[in-house]
């Protein structure tokens, strides 16, 4: 039976991990939350500072994605009451759009009673986002190796190593994926393609085998980061020197402008690495907020509400 209301919690994600352009993603323990129920008239309420500028009418991405799910399931689209809160900064390379897509699909899937299997949601989400890296991570959690060929997406999930943690440096400016894809060339030299196949393969093997020491050799890219460097001052220096300050490896997170550095929790050089990232950005005149995150082992989680649950504000504040 379809529930009267549902809530979902969906993780942020970092895409590419350097060489795995449009193919690798990792879920991070930073979350967005959505509550959805049927209503007489559509109403969208957004909470928190990360929702600024997001529309609250039927052009809202959450509402539109829910419509796609109902359409896909062959069900009539109802009017909806939607509430959303997010700790994921918008348009910074931490997968805010993927979290919105996956969160809305999972919520509408449960609310409608369609109960499509997770892989079907993955197909729909990959088609919407046009690459499977962020949506796969937000949906399944952990680390995802995936492709989407324009018709079909396939993935394998890798369990993150228990000592792996990530430092993100989030600059105080936005960079849309659309803009950061426009600077990429249509064609690349064969040697760059071969470079990325080798490094991406090594990275996947290192992550799967838990060989953290191999990450610094593998996390190098010739397909997108060199072209995007001009959009993110300080990025080249961070990618070149982060390992000298205790990082296992560093990459542009998704389409940027956030930089992400991975570390081994047991090595104890967190403060040095954090200062290096912040000061490198500051030397370019950019304020960046730094934050340590862990991989989120869990992907999107759904609760069907029966009544008597804590308020949405309490849920958004961490109550479950
Ligand atoms: N909760 C939301 N509700 C509605 N629209 C959203 C929401 N979250 C993100 N979006 C839309 O997605 C856009 C950001 O998508 P974009 O792909 O450019 O960046 P990102 O997903 O944050 O980063 P990246 O894809 O590089 O990891 C926002 O400007 C907004 O239009
Ligand atoms: N793989 C994508 C992630 C951003 O959505 C890119 O780098 O453009």
TrEMBL record:
Residues that, per the record, bind ATP: 89-99
Known catalytic reactions: L-homoserine + ATP = O-phospho-L-homoserine + ADP + H(+)
GO CC entries: cytoplasm
GO molecular function ontology, one term from the record: ATP binding
Domain of life: Bacteria
EC id: 2.7.1.39
Domain GHMP kinase N-terminal: 60-142
Pathway in which the depicted protein is active: Amino-acid biosynthesis; L-threonine biosynthesis; L-threonine from L-aspartate: step 4/5
Residue span(s) of domain GHMP kinase C-terminal: 204-282
Enzyme class, first EC level, given as a word: transferase
Main location: cytoplasm
Family (UniProt): Belongs to the GHMP kinase family. Homoserine kinase subfamily.
Protein name in the entry: Homoserine kinase
Organism name: Paenibacillus chitinolyticus
Organism phylogeny: Bacteria, Bacillati, Bacillota, Bacilli, Bacillales
């Amino acid at each position: 039976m379809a529930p009267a209301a549902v809530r979902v919690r969906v993780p942020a994600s970092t895409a590419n991990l350097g060489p795995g352009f449009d193919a690798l993603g990792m879920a991070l323990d930073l979350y967005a939350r959505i509550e959805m129920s049927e209503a007489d008239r559509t109403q969208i309420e957004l909470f928190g500072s990360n929702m600024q500028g997001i529309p609250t009418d039927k052009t809202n991405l959450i509402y539109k994605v829910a419509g796609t799910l109902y359409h896909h399931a062959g069900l009539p689209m109802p009017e909806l009451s939607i509430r959303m809160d997010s700790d994921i900064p918008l348009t910074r390379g931490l997968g805010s759009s993927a979290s919105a897509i996956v969160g809305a699909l999972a919520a509408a899937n449960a609310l409608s009673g369609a109960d499509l299997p997770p892989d079907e949601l993955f197909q729909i989400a990959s088609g919407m986002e046009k690459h499977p890296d962020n949506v796969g991570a937000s949906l399944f959690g952990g680390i995802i190796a995936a492709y989407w060929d324009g018709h079909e997406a396939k993935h394998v999930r890798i369990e993150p190593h228990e000592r792996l943690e990530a430092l993100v440096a989030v600059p105080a400016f936005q960079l849309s994926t659309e803009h950061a894809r426009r600077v990429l060339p249509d064609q690349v030299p064969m040697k760059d393609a071969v470079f990325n196949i080798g490094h991406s393969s090594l990275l996947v093997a290192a992550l799967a085998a838990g060989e953290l020491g191999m990450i610094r050799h593998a996390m190098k890219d010739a397909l997108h980061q060199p072209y995007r460097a001009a959009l993110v001052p300080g990025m080249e220096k961070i990618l070149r020197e982060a390992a000298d300050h205790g990082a296992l490896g560093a990459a542009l997170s998704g389409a940027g402008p956030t930089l992400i550095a991975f570390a081994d929790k047991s090595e104890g050089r967190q403060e040095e690495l954090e200062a290096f990232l912040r000061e490198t950005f500051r030397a370019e005149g950019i304020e960046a907020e730094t934050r340590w995150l862990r991989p989120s082992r869990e992907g999107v989680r759904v609760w069907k509400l029966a009544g008597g649950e804590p308020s949405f504000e309490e849920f958004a504040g961490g109550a479950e």
